[in-house]
Structures are given as structure tokens and as C-alpha cells.
Specification:
Isopropylmalate Dehydrogenase, binds nicotinamide-adenine-dinucleotide, tartrate dehydrogenase activity, 12 helices, ICDH/IPMDH, alpha/beta, NAD, single chain, binds manganese (II) ion, binds 3-isopropylmalic acid, 364 residues, 2 domains
Length: 364
């Protein structure tokens, strides 16, 4: 029996709804396998901030470092600035644990009619640089309240930072359809982007020496946004800087149906620190507390976590269970259905028992 210790930070808004939903699904699926997860909940987030003035305790990172993985819901609340909430919890976890890869799959799901025309199945993974770039800590607000007021941000791209994320993306592309797209903006006056292009090309040359099928396309991000809408099936792995990858991943998930379905894995190969699994969406204050949030992003993130913990069959089983619910027409409102979170989870739990044996038979 494998066991793993998971830090749970449900956080704010719909994080409080989709997290328990996903934990029930993950527990139900692991019961079929030789694995048990030991969940340890942390009540960190905006309520904790209201009580203590901080989003997590001073030794919060140290506490998280003792776990095998972190399962996070969402952070952010309308009455506290994001510069307090996100900058005090989510961003420090990604940074301190050097989770430099933010892996964000997006693909066609059964029974869903994409908002846009989709002639062919969509199956892409966005590999977002997650530690540096436009999200650097260098910058600030100056001369507040005066005529001279200004905000300045220095985007920091390092050879090490670009190389490691490009290598991860190229290696991933080799295991898929061999097509890597790099999001760039080297035509604008953005000094960092010609450097990004150069380093990515160098890494891809190295990887392609052993895998000649690997191809690289540099696509300007404005044109890439349009191409994602018009021909989303054309993309396999997309590597992008922190900010560009953030924007492209909401776009990619919306193209497949809703940002409520998108999962993500914040990884730090070679795994010196815990990785973090969380939906791409935020705390959705506009629907929080109504029981209507789509739990797929959180459940699918749970599947990415199982895969990461060395349980690919349990992960595939869980994905098959929520896909079957969709195929049966059980959908939350963001997908045009009428189901609430609870109804969707009930369908997933029933499918975990019914799709399990089929999946085992296929794999034998
Ligand atoms: P959001 O992702 O929370 O919501 C955008 C829209 O998508 C809303 O209309 C919402 O109702 C809908 N939506 C999102 N998830 C859904 C789900 N699971 N089911 C159904 N509908 C869903 O983005 P926002 O409104 O821009 O941000 C709200 C707060 O969340 C802000 O404070 C923001 O900074 C924060 N945020 C946090 C994270 C995170 O914790 N990882 C990610 C993004 C945004
Ligand atoms: C995401 C979010 C975060 C980001 C915000 C909330 C800081 O949008 O995970 O995509 O920009 O990384
Ligand atoms: Mn985002």
C-alpha cells in the first residue's frame, strides 16, 4: 500500500465547494487501488487573513514542505486586494517550491459542444513558465498620488529559467505528437522575447538531435490567440512565458467548453519540493455559495496529482468517471446544463464504480 500526505488549502469562494467535492472523488477512486491519501487541511485564505492579518502563518511554507503534494482550491475575495491575497499565498508557494512548470491541459470532452466551431478533436497542453518573466518581484509604485506617479515592472528572463521550462515542454512534446509551439512577442519592443526565442530554439535543437520528429513553431502571441480560436486542433504542446501562458490557458479552456473544467499542475522537476495541483479558474465570487460551481477543474487536478504520485491507472479511472458523467449529459450550468456541484459529483461517484472494471479490462 502506497500512502501519501497531501496538504489541502481549499481557500476562498468556490474553492470551499469544489475542494470537498474533489476529495470525495479522489478517495472513491483510490479505494480501488493500492494507494491511500492522508489529507491534512489548512484553513488559510481570506478568512484567515481577516483574523490574523496574513494569508498563512509565517512558517506556512515550512509546514507545506513536509507534504508529498499540495491540493489547492482558489484564492481571492472581492473585499481584499489581490495584492494581499494572491501575493500572500498562491504566488509564494509557486516561488518558494520552485514550481517552474505550470502544466495546463485542454482538450475536447465528451458530449460538449464547443462554443466555437471544432472540426477536429482538441488536445493540447500549455506549459507555462511559472517562476519568473513578467511576474518578477522587481518593480513597484512610485511617487504615489503625485503627477509623477508611475508603476514600473522589470520582466526577468534567465537562461536557466527558460532552458528548464523549454526542456520540459520539448520532452513532453516528444511523448505526444512531436509539435511544440512557442508563444512569443519578439516583434514588439519587448527586449526579453528575442532572448526567449533564442534559448527555446537552442533547447529544441538539442532535444531534436535525439528525436528528429520534434518540430518547433514560433508564433507571435497575438496571432496565436486568433489561431487558437480558429484552429485549436492544430496545437499539441505550447510553451509560454508566465503572463502569456496565463492568458492563453484561460482561452484554451474556454475553447473546450468552460474555464471550470481546466486543471493544472505546478511542478518542480526533479521534485526537490512538493508540487501543487489546482484548477486554472479562480474563486468565482459571482457564483460562490450557490452550489453550482463546476468541480471538474478540481477533480481533474486531483487526477494530475494521482498521476504525479505514481498512480496513472487511478488517475485515468478518475478522468474516465467524470468524462462518462459528461457523456451522459450531466453538466453544470457553465456547460449549458442544469446540474449543481452535488449532482455532478454523485454521477462521478457512481461512474467510479461502473467504469472501473471496463478500464481494467482495457489495460490488461
Ligand atoms: P474566475 O476564474 O474566478 O471566474 C471567471 C468566470 O468564470 C466567472 O464568471 C466565474 O463564475 C466562472 N467560473 C470560474 N470557475 C468556475 C467553475 N468552476 N464553475 C463555473 N463557473 C466558473 O476569475 P475572476 O473572476 O477573474 O477572479 C476571481 C478571483 O479569483 C480574483 O480574486 C482572482 O485574482 C482570483 N483568481 C485566483 C486563482 C487561483 O487561486 N489560482 C486563479 C484565477 C483567479
Ligand atoms: C492562475 C491565476 C494566477 C496567475 C493569479 C490569481 C495570481 O490567474 O493561476 O492562472 O496569474 O498565475
Ligand atoms: Mn490565470
Amino acid at each position: 500500500m502506497t500512502s501519501a500526505s497531501i496538504a489541502v488549502v481549499a481557500g476562498d469562494g468556490i474553492g470551499q465547494e469544489v475542494m470537498p467535492a474533489a476529495i470525495r472523488c479522489v478517495d472513491a477512486v483510490t479505494a480501488h487501488y493500492d494507494v491511500s491519501l492522508d489529507w491534512r487541511e489548512y484553513d488559510w485564505g481570506s478568512d484567515f487573513y481577516r483574523r490574523t492579518g496574513a494569508m498563512m502563518p509565517v512558517d506556512g511554507i515550512d509546514q507545506l514542505s513536509k507534504h508529498d503534494a499540495i491540493f489547492l482550491g482558489a484564492v481571492g475575495t472581492p473585499d481584499i486586494p489581490d495584492t494581499e491575497t494572491l501575493w500572500g499565498l498562491l504566488i509564494p508557494i509557486r516561488r518558494e517550491f520552485q514550481q517552474y512548470v505550470n502544466l495546463r491541459p485542454a482538450r475536447t470532452l465528451p458530449g460538449l459542444t464547443p462554443v466555437l466551431r471544432a472540426d477536429q478533436p482538441i488536445d493540447m497542453v500549455i506549459v507555462r513558465e511559472n517562476n519568473e518573466g513578467e511576474y518578477s518581484e522587481i518593480g513597484g509604485r512610485y511617487a504615489r498620488g503625485t503627477e509623477a506617479e508611475a508603476a514600473i515592472q522589470e520582466a526577468v528572463f534567465t537562461r536557466t529559467g527558460i532552458t528548464r521550462v523549454a526542456r520540459f515542454a520539448a520532452d513532453l512534446a516528444v511523448t505526444r505528437r512531436g509539435s511544440l509551439t512557442s508563444a512569443t512577442k519578439s516583434n514588439g519592443i519587448v527586449h526579453t522575447m528575442p532572448f526567449w526565442d533564442e534559448v527555446v530554439a537552442g533547447v529544441v535543437d538539442e532535444v531534436a538531435a535525439d528525436h528528429p520528429g520534434l518540430t518547433l513553431r514560433n508564433v507571435l502571441v497575438d496571432a496565436l490567440a486568433a489561431a487558437l480560436v480558429l484552429r485549436p486542433w492544430d496545437f499539441d504542446v505550447i510553451v509560454a512565458s508566465n503572463l502569456l501562458g496565463d492568458i492563453l490557458s484561460d482561452l484554451a479552456s474556454a475553447i473546450t467548453g468552460s474555464i471550470g473544467v481546466a486543471p493544472s499542475a505546478n511542478l518542480n522537476p526533479p521534485r526537490r519540493y512538493p508540487s501543487m495541483f489546482e484548477p486554472v479558474h479562480g474563486s468565482a465570487p459571482d457564483i460562490a455559495g450557490q452550489g453550482i460551481a463546476n468541480p471538474i477543474g478540481q477533480i481533474w487536478s486531483g487526477a494530475l496529482m494521482l498521476d504525479h504520485l505514481g498512480q496513472p491507472r487511478a488517475a485515468a479511472h478518475l478522468v474516465a468517471a467524470f468524462e462518462q458523467a459528461l457523456a451522459d449529459g450531466v453538466r453544470t450550468r457553465d456547460l449549458g446544463g442544469t446540474a449543481g456541484t452535488e449532482e455532478f459529483v454523485t454521477a462521478v461517484l457512481a461512474n467510479i464504480d461502473s467504469v472501473g472494471p471496463t478500464l481494467d479490462a482495457q489495460q490488461e
